[in-house]
Amino acid sequence: MKLKEYTNIQDYIEKKNLTKMNKTELITKKDLLNIIVNDPNLNIDNFKKMKVSELREILKITHKITCDNEIHYVNNLGLCFTCFRPLKADYIKYENYCLDC
Q1: What pTM does this model have?
Q2: Is the Cβ–Cβ distance between 24 and 64 less than 8 Å?
């Protein structure tokens, strides 16, 4: 095996491992309620009745990014929840998803 082929294979394996480590998920109602339970200033009873979209707007958290076993919360309101491109005015009827997704 040539050196160039070997380094290309190593690069491919490293990139594949990085994509597994960096994982972006849309945050669920269960995750949001866990955040609220851990905060002593918030009353959980008021938030249990709300929809997930309302909770995301109030807490300003939409996605959970897992990177190297650390969790980071991100606010992606105004972006497509799948491809993260900015939403246009005509995409409002699709609620947080662009026409392509």
Answers
A1: 0.65
A2: yes
